[in-house]
Amino acid sequence: MRVSDPDRVYQVTLRLEGDIDRIVHAIFWDHVVKSYDVLLDEQDWPPDFVRDCPVGEEPGLFSARVTEMLHELDPEASSYVDDIYLTDDEILQHLRRVSRIVVGFADIGYKLNFKKSKIAFLSVIFLGYELSSEGKSLAPHFLEKCALLQPPNTVQKLQSLLEFLNFGRTYIPDYATRIKPLYELIRSNFSSRFWTIEHTHVLQDLQTDLLAVKHLHTRDNKTHLVIRVIPGAFGFTYVTFNEGETVPIAYKSHLYSAAEQRFAQTEKILTAVQMAVIKERPLAQGQRIVVVSPIPALEAVTKASVPNSKALHPRWIQWAASLTATDVDYIFDPRLQTQEFLQYEIEYPVPAGTLPIDQYQVVMYTDGSAQPAVGTKQQYSAACAVVSGTMEGEVFCPRHTYTKTLGDCMAQLAELKALLLALEHADPVMLTLLVCDSYYCVQSFNEYLHYWKINGFRDSKCNTIKHKLLWGKVADLKETLPKVHVVHTLGHQRIGIHVAGNNLADEAAKSAVAVATVAAVTRSSSKPDTEISAAIKATADGTPFPKGFPSKYSYCLSSVLNAVVNIPGIGVRELPNKIERPRLISAAHEGGARVHAGVAATISLLQARYWWPGLYKETKQYVLCCDVCQQIKASSARRPSAAAPSDFK
């Protein structure tokens, strides 16, 4: 914007932005855009004139207009700020496209500055990069400045240095970890921090790498985008490629936050994958994304399959959304399992005496399952299962299946009872391998059980351990079964020698829960709800209505087991039995169109079909006690801002 005092005129100049593509022949030109001349005298203002100069609005509108016109004239062309960019393999085709765009812009009144244009060049300097048929490299003037970098002596110079180095960050693998010591100077109190020889070494190493960088390729929107995730101890690097090429598009790196540092290594990889997919999806330009990671069957990973999981449930919800995206494929590459990855991926100590699997006479798989109860007043309906068989090579051949319904208990207790059930059916003279997907049960059996028994089943703080009686039975059986070895396997996997047996045990446990649920629903359905029966009777013969049932409503049976209520001005609603109401609230809150949306949304879903006394109170109590809602609310708290830096000493 320019202000001209003699003419008292605002002159607003708007410019256009665009993108970079692969170059063989290129053209750049500046737009000299139509100016808007507005007299400052109020009597000369047009009726629709806006008093504030629209600097913040008009550039975006103008850019959108030119981008739209450019898309109509040549969909392959792109623009950035005041430049338009085209590339072709053949010069005549290139000039035809240029002519079509020039004429098109002239027709809508936009002037093009050909003095700043470069037409049919084999290489150009654009936005600090040298673009050619080989790819994108740092411009010569950037490399000249890089060679002259010196250690800074003020905060302002350090900030300028970091901005300069950040320009070349996509050319350096693991840049975030390497630049971290310099950023710590800005984020710290400079009264006690100094530039040291270590910082100088960091700067010199980055200089050396920047001066030695080679070309990077630009995105080819006709191929799939490949993202290779490389884990590290304090952060990760991911590299983007065009499918079928070995030269990268860019290197991107990230440091784990304080919370992410405490994650299990698998959760760190999920963090890296989610961030890479979200950030690079625009770069894919509608093509599929192929993620190469150091974890096999990454899309099948769940919270239950990760030992010592530290991430909250909202994180797992986000990861699950990324892993189930329809435009992303996941590939396992063991070469990405760096030393840091292997160091943190050890799941449990291997028990002494464990033998190769082909030497065991019997192999047993255990699993426990706990599902929300239906048809009863209890919270969960649980069962456990044991599948016993033999291994023929690497193929599991089941022989026997044992199941047991457990009533109201949680999944951890169900896993422990499954372990106990397997030990009860184990043959003391047969060499047996017992495979369990509960890290809690395996670690306790192999490491802690001996010490618990000596200490009277108390932990290091002299507190009684959970499930003391059950662990006492397990300890007694362990002494009589010296040939039974217990090992851990990850649950819900797709690859591995224990996948088939573990899946059979999982299916058997879930089937037992389903059978128990059907039986409970059948029993509860046969029992009449006394309050509803009293309300129906009161409607029929005029006797007093039960508490909570308004007398202005009418109640009747629609079938043998289902009651309905007719609410004046609203209509007919179903009147479910008491035993069904918690399940209906849970389904509306966790399985509706708006999952975990809050009290009002859950009540709205229920009232569209049901009515019963105390619906609002029961629903509100359920939502306020929802663990997922509480975790999401806690994770949305803001972090404190960093303190402003001061100068070096």
Automatic annotation (TrEMBL):
It comes from the Eukaryota. Residues 358-514 form the RNase H type-1 domain. SUPFAM superfamilies: DNA/RNA polymerases, Ribonuclease H-like. InterPro entries: DNA/RNA_pol_sf, Integrase_H2C2, Retrovirus_Pol_polyprotein, Rev_trsase/Diguanyl_cyclase, RNaseH-like_sf, RNaseH_domain, RNaseH_sf, RT_RNaseH. Keywords: Endonuclease, Hydrolase, Nuclease, Nucleotidyltransferase, RNA-directed DNA polymerase, Transferase. Pfam families: Integrase_H2C2, RNase_H, RT_RNaseH. One of its GO terms (molecular function) is RNA-directed DNA polymerase activity. PANTHER family: PROTEIN CBG26694, PROTEIN NYNRIN-LIKE. This is Gypsy retrotransposon integrase-like protein 1. The lineage of its organism: Eukaryota, Metazoa, Chordata, Craniata, Vertebrata.
